[in-house]
What we know:
It contains 1 helix and 11 strands, in the order αβββββββββββ. By secondary structure, it is mainly beta.
Amino acid sequence: MLLSIIWVITAHAAAQFNFYPSATSSAEYNDNIFLDNEDESTDMIYTTGLGLRQEILWQTAGVILNYTPSYSWYRDDGDLDEWRHLADASIYKQFTKRTRLDLRNTYLWTTRPTDVSDERDADNPREGRQIDADTNRRGRETYYTNVATANFSHQYGERDSVYAGFEYRRLRQVENTARGGDDNDNNENDIYTPSAGIEYWFTPQWGFSLDGEYSRRDLKDDDDRKVVDGDFRLIRNFTRHLDGFIAYNH
């Protein structure tokens, strides 16, 4: 990531610098702070945080850095007071009008299983998030998740495009104490996922898309897994604003 930043900076002379600071404060009543079906504990959680966003933008490239630390304290369970860190760095390079490279790394340090990262693109909800809630986790033990992605895309026609991507996902337990979670360290993993896809329109009304990914999942306390996923869609364009499709996923 640092080498990419140096490459972008040296390749472009004039840059635009934007800095967006923010502050947040919240109060939350939680009726089951450990997500335990048999022994529910309630508490009030107060949180204050900062948001620091730095943009370095050129005409065809940019570096965007986000860091949002926050501190939470509990009214009844003071030993659960905690820091949360969410950091995000992304770099993009527009080689031509239709060819683009995106690199991104997101890091989350927290104790809350329900914590998520920001959306990849706030203007495009379909892009989703790099870090979702950990639905297998219980308790309030400290853990971190890091997700690094690279994506190269090229549009070679009015609606025709190809892409290739890679994702590396890592989850590690930092603290394993009696705070409601006994088996969270079993969730530790490393996941490597290359992917590729194409969309092609062979007539103005008919087209198809083909997407595939291979995932190698190294799990701490379970058998390692290899997953291949493929998706094919036959697309019919009815009007300028309406498409329909038939899909098969395997």
